[in-house]
Amino acid sequence: MKKWQVSSRWLTTSLVAMGMSFPVFAQEDDPIKVGILHSLSGTMAISESTLKDTMLMQIEQQNAQGGLLGRQLEPVVVDPASDWPLFAEKARQLLEQDKVDVIFGNWTSVSRKSVLPVVEELNGLLFYPVQYEGEESSGNVFYTGAAPNQQAIPAVDYLMNNVGVERWVLAGTDYVYPRTTNKILEAYLKDHGVAQEDIMINYTPFGHSDWQNIVSEIKRFGSAGKKTAVVSTINGDANVPFYRELGNQGIDAADIPVIAFSVGEQELSGIDTAPLVGHLAAWNYFMSVDTDANYDFIDSWIEYTGDEEAVTNDPMEAHYIGFNMWKEAVKKAGTTDVDAVKDAIIGVSVPNLSGGYAAMMPNHHITKPVLIGEIQDNGQFSIVWQTPSTVAGDAWSDYLPGSRDLISDWRKPLECGNYNVIEKTCGGGEAQTASQ
Amino acid sequence: MNLLRTIKATLLFWCCVALATPVLAQQTNIAEQDVPPELAALAADSYADKGKAIQALIASDHPRTRTWLTTLLDGKLQRIKESGRFVIVTDNRGRDWTVIDAVDDTPLGEVSRRNIDRITINNALRNQLRSAMAVLDLDAPTVQERLASADRLLGKVDVNLAEPLAARLEAEESPAVRDKLTQALAIYQLQSGDSAAISEAIDTLSGSLNPAVRAALNGVAAGEGEAAESARQALAGIEQKLKLNRAAETLYFGLSLGSVLVLAAIGLAITFGVMGVINMAHGELIMLGAYTTWMMQQLLPGQPGLALILSIPAGFLVAAVAGIIIERSVIRFLKGRPLETLLATFGVSLILQQLVRTLVSPLNRTVVTPEWMSGSLVINEALSLTLNRLYVLGFALVVFAGIMLVMRKTRLGLEVRAVTQNRAMARSMGIRATRVDIMTFALGSGVAGLAGVALSQLTNVGPNLGQSYIIDSFMVVVFGGVGNLWGTLVAGMSLGVINQVLEPWAGAILAKIIVLVFIILFIQKRPRGLFPQKGRAAEG
């Protein structure tokens, strides 16, 4: 009896060993599939198509170095065409038909929200590279862009403490990211003693092009004798006519600075920046960062695109970090299995492009430095301030009533994206987020 | 063998020399740069130290003070990392930057961006530098320059500046500059704390429309006491004057928005209003016009103004040819089937958008605004009209007049009107209806191209440009009355003004919704728009 047991154990072990060795054999010929879910047509193509190229470049570089786990990487590119429901369909196609091991993708929050249930249902991995409004944490998504506490809050701190701003215009495009961010900022400003009449909030539709009235209103708001600044969450295209109108109406950065969260090198490449010198942007990376890692990245990007004028920006760095983190996690886990990678990636730390390290936190957000840059006449930013050390991303804002009690920790045994520390339950944030 | 070795050695030697020469040359140059301490101080680590260094530099009266301050202000004063040499960057595009020596202007060729250390400034320093430059410019020979620098000093006068400014005021001859300087000094006095000086300053400042003055008065008015009371009175007087200016400003904003609407809609008024073709690709024809402007600027680098003027005929031609192709290949097969035309042209619009994305780029293109179109026309200190919009307003009126002329005074116009009123009869009179169709559609499309040229100065030139204008265009044409060009003009202008009047109260989004609701209600009441076509032709 005992003998049988032993031999059965031996048998199982050897079977498992064989079973394990077989797929490894089979896998060695199979490439690792990397899904890329970025719009290549439609409105968002302007921003997202460069992210696709960033991924392709990194995959190419990795393959040149012998791939990952001895296997080649194979990109699977799909085009969700800036159509939010199509994002979900394409994500399903990537996971079910193409059987990709990981997805890098999305730009707008609404597209991420559309993909979220699919990735969770099919247990995929999604790396999301853009700054966003927070108030979310999924076990299957890794947020490599900035949460509000890694961009908006430090930017406001800078204006308040270093520039002495007392009066605030919060201008944004009318959708979820600016609305949530402005809600957080309004709460934050009031916490710091800013009166209601010193805050002006303004929303405009996507692609707004007639800024005459709003700019003139800002000008009027700014002539009340207190230092005024504009915090802009205006998205994409609409920025060009906005800045043009600022320049034409003679609003100088020295008088009323505008700090933007969605304007990077890419957006500026469509404008003559001479009248905009001194206006600000807050990001976690600028193309002008003075490190060798960054210069190497720029050189390889220019080489890859074949365009001497090609620019790099913050979401590209986020993809750079995300890809390297995933790579390290796969190496650590020794497999591309989703659950193993999910466990392995927490705590992984890789170099970023600004001379420091980015670490994956248990809430699936990463640590990032916050940089404030002033626009220069060559379309670049000159960095005027940065946080002394990196800041860890906070999924749930500390300044909103429903979310300040929530934490996210995907490590065992908690494994919860919205744990309420007061009620000691998981799932406390669902109703709150849904109602927003 | 020996010979070979000698050759090798010689080659090696020359290689070494060749490699070493530039290094040597550079080193001798470094020795030559004798950095004055005032300049060296500018490279301080903290912004506060840099601020002190700037003050010291101004006080030093070094002959190159001006150059260094200007280049520092422009972000062009930088350092070579290894040698610490101060250089001025003359071209900072791309990866290698052209530099010259900051002390003696020796050209140093191109240096990789990696090896350059920027001397950064922030907005506070920029302010300080500008004031400093403004003070230097107060001695400029022309009144204009002096006026500009005096203007810049409003609200920026501090203890250090007050005395030299007062001295300067004594010597100044131009009354305009004197006026500005007096105001600048009065603003300074507002903060002095001496009540007699304050009340005198408030007297000087009352009636001024300058925002800096208003900001300063607001600061005083927020306090308490007699001074605050008189400041409030002065502000009330200013506010009264401002009201009128504000009304004029809103009217201008409205007309400007209206002119954009008219430009975008006028081509559609011809193709949809006169011919009855629902052309959903109209927006993309506008886009083609805008891309033509970009293309012209690429062909004529350095001459954005000339390129823009040349794009007017070019944009018209490109869009007209595209219109002819669309008409010949799609629309003529769908005559009298509006729903199919709508769907087919919508397809064409998607094709054109994606074509531009694939052939040119999905990214927006930069269209440079020529010098004479940037900035604004200053009427008074509270009212200035932005020049680019002023030009577009004028252009819209000229285009409108041109089209009226074509429709009323030329044979083509006559034929168009004949064909649209009664096609069968016009044909039996010997008018070639097909040719008229082509010409009319080409005219409407060409005008859309013109709109694109104008819009390239106001908004983004990108594949989505057309989409944002197509709905507005239809709205204007329907509101104005289909088939009536005057209606389009009046409708565009009035919608623009209504929108801009509503916007400050309701916000941009709500204003748009209110305008749409208003049009829906209006169409319910008067289905044929503002100026309905009369007579039997209107029935058909």
Automatic annotation (TrEMBL), chain B:
Main localization category: membrane
Spans traversing the lipid bilayer: 251-278, 306-326, 338-356, 390-407, 474-498, 504-523
Localization of this protein: Cell inner membrane
Keywords: Amino-acid transport, Cell membrane, Membrane, Signal, Transmembrane, Transmembrane helix, Transport
Domain of life: Bacteria
Signal peptide: 1-25
Membrane topology type: Multi-pass membrane protein
InterPro entries given in the database record: ABC_transp_permease (IPR001851), ABC_UrtB_bac (IPR017779), BCAA_transport_permease (IPR052157)
Family: Belongs to the binding-protein-dependent transport system permease family. LivHM subfamily.
Name under which the protein is recorded: Urea ABC transporter permease subunit UrtB
Species assigned in the record: Modicisalibacter luteus
